[in-house]
Predict the structure of Family 10 glycosylhydrolase.
Amino acid sequence: MTLTVAALAAGAVACTPAGPHGPSVSGSQVSGRSATPGRGADEQGRKVQKLAEPARPTGPAPSEETAPSEESAADDGVLRPATRPAVRRSISLGLEDVAGTDQNWDQIAERFDAAGITSVHLSAGRVEFTAFDWAAHPEAAAEPGEDHLATAIEHVGRMPDGSPREVSIMIDVLVPSWIAADPSLAGQDARGRRAEYVPSATALLHGPVGERYIDYLIAVAERYRPDQIAFSELAFDDETFGPEDLALYRTMTGRADWPRDAGGDIAEDSPEVASWRSDVLARFLRRAHTALGEVERRAGQEIRLATDVHVSWDDLAAGPAGVGHDYTELAPAVDELVLWAYLGTRGREPGDLADLTGALDEMPLSNDRLTVSIGLWDEQAPTTADGDVPAISPELLASSVAEAQSEHVAVNVTPYSLMSPDHWTALHGIWGDADGGT
């Protein structure tokens, strides 16, 4: 039986220890590229006005042919709400943690309980490197025969009092292996160079890459019924200028060509390109949200859709439209935005987080639609002897979390793999004695 979050919520599965599973997967193998937030040159400065809630499924209850078991399906067509703690404090576990060798899940659960962690973000890997056996693409399994996500949910899916802990499952959208096998899927920059990790806008919106993202979204939703599923790394770099993307740009905007500068070169950082990129991502996310809604109907359960977004430090409430992250465009398409507030990759200070959350507090979004994610990577420091990026100090983590906390914004810390005992002590000092009730 595949363990679902719904089964935990219903008390149907006991949380018993399980042995360690899976290969060791390093952070660099999983992320594939730098987690540095987007380019400042593309900021649009558009203030957020009213951001609509995405539509939830309506209509009749699931039919007998498509409905899941009686214990999880709604009887009256009303979706069972996702777990949503009153105070949301979360930790992210990358695939290196979820599928790691000799993982001590009992220790992880104890650390979560002591630090008052009310939510957990778990990586499902990529469509080309999955954390479980995906029937549609068995060749992509990180370790055939192992369900690493089920093991993780079993051990960290409950709070100390036995109530469900909020579970969000992350899907990394980078596809370097697929692009290496079929370069036509890659985006191209203005000089014709192909991306290594990111598909073209066309392959995402109307091609096989976007289709497979949604297929995997549905597979994860149906298999685990988590409270939330989030896309990670869903952003554009410079590679949206290939011929297929020009055709897409013409169709979507009605313009005959890319905007050009005085010398005739493509104006890569123009507001028109930035707006179009955000529109591409918003359209894809709306399509994904609709597909997820079909699973919600069958399960009788709310499953929220989120997406990671970069931060525009020059215009905190707007989002960097140049990478496709105009908040005004994306927020209505999803249930939550997860902001990458990674101080160590931008040389920022904790006070900048206070400014960020202050700006977000002014946005017309409720607490459960915004999360500030504090990254532990310190790209300003020398790499370790193994060539890895070290973590920011425990003191910086503590001050960052303290500054980021807000009445209307949730806080996440990522990744678990960089959390030392001293980091846990620092986090416990901020969160450990706080009220984390649901």
About this structure: The first strand starts at residue 89 and ends at 93. The chain has two domains: 57-345+361-370, 346-360+371-433. The chain is about 30% helix and 15% strand. Residues 8-51, 57-76 have pLDDT under 50 and may be disordered.
